[in-house]
Amino acid sequence: MRSILVGEVRTGRRITQIPVSDASWSVKHRATGEISIDIPLDADEFRTFERAYYGGLYPGPGVFPSDFTFPESATPIWKPTGGLRAEFLSAIEPARCFLAVLEGDYVIEAGPIWSWEFPFGGKLTVKARGMRSLFEHRYVMGNLASAWAEWAQTYSNLSLATIAKRLVQLTESVSGGDLPIVLPADEAGVNTRTYLGSDLSTVLSRLDDLSDVIGGPDIAFEPRLTADRMGVEWVMRTGTAADPLLHQTGDDHVWDSRVPAGGVSGLSVSRDATGVAQQAWVTGGGADEALLMARRTPAQIGAPDLRNYGFPLLETSDARSTVSEQATLDKWAEGNLSAALRPTQTWKMSALAAPTDRQGTPAGPQLGAYRPGDWAKVWVPKTHPLLGLLLPEGFHRARVLNISGGLDEFVKIDLMPTMEVR
Q1: Would you kindly state where each structural domain of the chain is located, as residue ranges?
Q2: Is residue 113 within 8 Å of residue 100, measured between CB atoms?
Q3: Would the pTM count as exceeding 0.85?
């Protein structure tokens, strides 16, 4: 059964479950997930509820929930009593508290609350985003009292994933920077990165930089219940130098539209060439004649050139002002071109969150068993109006990009087919 939890961002400690009239959520690959819930404050059946704890413990006016006012021994409940109290709002305080969507014990997505919206006579809508969103509000800077423009930090002989870990450790070392994040083990490597205080760059932008270069690791902050089930923690998962992609171990997930109990339907297709390029330019540090520049073409990275198949010349550009080494800039150009060689194609479908057959046996992938980045096989029937013209009937491989849904039994899944299927 799907439920909504709220808790404190800095500690991950659980405050309560929230009754909602509706909710939507999404989990995204290399991007920030989103959660939105509707709380029917005006509904008679909701206004009679009051926040209560066994043992009678409840914070007084102006007292925020904390480990002291909400000890682990207290079990939160909602029950019909004299009416909703104003302290309820302290449990959904933007920036200080988080929302979490659970499917049973599996935390689908969780992250800081950023906004409320209450149209008069309507429902209170509370919106949160995944933990990645918090790093949009943190800067790569040492814990200094002054001389910030002179600060610099170099990480050497590490994998790109471990440099990402160091950035998270750095931002957690400042006052108020602590977060309930479980960090991965260190991995040695050959990479070096220098970060300057004068750049005043966000932690998220630098994490994305590490992911976006050739061979850069996937980085995800995946929520889960703590061992005592009284809170949520986020596991920082990263790809490795040997395998930079985050994906499941074992076989591909299989969605077979021929299986009635599987609940797979509505396979739609989109194709987008707005990002296609056969030439990639990147500028680095310096000015005027001393400006670093890199250019890459398909021939330089051993890829086919679409101009040989009738496509017009299309180009892309990028600016990396913090890059001071030509070799690093060349890698950026290679990465940007590799991502732009062909039009992107995505598939979208609907599937049951927990499909079972008549005997109650799982009849397809269960929500919680697959995550963004995982590999999947999708049955494409010859009767599909579009894909039937492009592909032979059968299973075709794709990667899970996004998963979204609400409170009902269905989820929506976005996939990117592998190159040979596009």
Answers
A1: 2-134, 138-238, 253-272+344-421, 279-338
A2: no
A3: yes
